[in-house]
From TrEMBL:
It comes from Deinococcus aerophilus. It is found in: Cell membrane. Pfam families: MFS_1. Its main location: membrane. This is MFS transporter. The chain crosses the membrane at residues 12-32, 52-72, 84-103, 109-127, 139-159, 165-188, 209-235, 255-273, 285-304, 310-329, 341-367, 373-395. The keyword Ion transport does not apply. It is a multi-pass membrane protein.
Length: 408
């Protein structure tokens, strides 16, 4: 590409990033809506702890089901991303609005599963679409997108800290935002670095994982996902208990603010991870981030009963590094996968990752019941350390020359 053409594309790609990142955050607003109003739903429907947990798990499992079907049908490589995002956003908006008519947990859980399945038509295609706008700086671009979503995931905790909100109003607003996000995404076409159009190959998702380089990338991603959503899902519960044990006033509100900060700081981590991934190499950055994240989890295993300021400081460090590598796994896939099936590869990787998160989320309360929070943190810390080993293995393969402009 000539310098003149590069200069013409440069402003356009940042405009595309701004639009698409905003569109995806809006489109995925229903994912975070139930977390924002969970205390109100528990009161309105007299939810048990099991029901409340399933409202969270249903979205994860719905996403997995939607991603598996999408990958098997190669949807992200056969249909324009903006079409999939619009369809997924509208489906999510409709399922989210259905909560207004639900009379109890069973219907709500089913609707949350449909919402999760719809998100599988939004998130992977958006990552693929943004990859067509960036060849250099792709790690930063995808880091910005994941960082925006991280901030969106943190906002419900801020809402709860401020006293919650009328749950029906939250559902309506997030549904409208989802539809708006789909329309915004429709405005963003593919960039100049387009991938070849795929043909229908149902077995391609499995073939993509059998290669050694893609397999190691996926193992690294699974190590990252093992701790991420479990930490996000249970940190508020842990910190509420800590504040209560130290006889501090209004522990639930204090824990809500702390959780907003711990999850929200990850948005900055995503950007820094993107910058370092582009400059240092993605295998190096992901291994470093997982080593630091795993070390934080293991440190908390020893300091779970320490003074709240000490625990919060360590948790903020954990929240920064636990997500800093996330977008880089998707970026690696976009660089080493069969170009015609990048969307399928991204969707397959995400499906496996979110399947694992459902298990780790469910495992945490079991571990806490048997050995307290120190045992839970210790087990969570093992995943990223194993993931770091996988990424060091990837760095030694010939495919590493195709990652981050040859930086690996």
């Amino acid at each position: 590409m000539s310098n003149a053409v590069s200069q013409d594309v440069a402003p356009a790609r940042w405009t595309a990033l701004t639009w698409l990142a905003s569109a995806v955050v809006f489109a995925m607003a229903p994912w975070f809506s139930a977390a924002a109003v969970l205390p109100q739903l528990r009161a309105a429907w007299t939810l048990s702890d099991t029901d409340a947990a399933w409202l969270t798990l249903a979205v994860q499992l719905g996403f997995v089901l939607g991603a598996v079907l999408s990958a098997a049908l190669n949807l992200a490589d056969r249909i324009a991303p903006r079409q999939l995002i619009l369809a997924g956003a509208l489906l999510a908006a409709g399922a989210n609005l259905g909560l207004l008519l639900a009379q109890g947990p069973l219907a709500a859980i089913a609707l949350r599963a449909v919402t999760g399945a719809a998100m599988a038509l939004v998130y992977p295609p958006a990552l693929k679409a943004m990859s067509t706008w960036f060849r250099s700086g792709r790690g930063v671009a995808l880091g910005v997108m994941v960082g925006a979503l991280t901030l969106a995931a943190a906002l419900p905790h801020l809402v709860n800290g401020l006293g919650g909100a009328n749950w029906q109003a939250v559902i309506v607003v997030t549904s409208v935002l989802a539809a708006l996000g789909g329309v915004m995404a429709w405005r963003v076409g593919n960039g100049p670095h387009q991938f070849p159009r795929a043909v229908f190959r149902p077995a391609q998702a499995w073939r993509l994982l059998t290669g050694r380089a893609m397999g190691l990338t996926t193992l690294g991603y699974l190590g990252h996902m093992w701790e991420l959503y479990a930490m996000w899902a249970w940190f508020a519960v842990f910190f509420t208990r800590l504040l209560s044990d130290h006889d501090l006033p209004d522990p639930q509100r204090g824990a809500a603010y702390a959780t907003f900060a711990v999850v929200g700081v990850g948005a900055l981590g995503c950007y820094v991870g993107g910058v370092l991934g582009d400059r240092w190499g993605r295998t190096r950055l992901t291994a470093l981030a997982m080593c630091l994240s795993g070390a934080c989890a293991l440190a908390l295993a020893f300091l779970a009963d320490a003074a709240p300021p000490v625990v919060l400081a360590l948790s903020l460090l954990w929240g920064f590094w636990i997500i800093a590598d996330s977008a880089q796994f998707s970026t690696i896939v976009s660089e080493i996968a069969d170009p015609a099936y990048v969307g399928t590869a991204l969707t397959t990787q995400l499906a496996l990752g979110f399947t694992l998160t459902a298990g780790s989320i469910a495992l945490v309360p079991v571990l806490v019941g048997r050995g307290g929070w120190p045992l839970a943190f210790a087990v969570l810390g093992v995943g990223p350390l194993l993931g770091a080993l996988a990424m060091r293995g990837l760095a030694r393969l010939p495919e590493a020359a195709r990652i981050a402009g040859g930086r690996g």
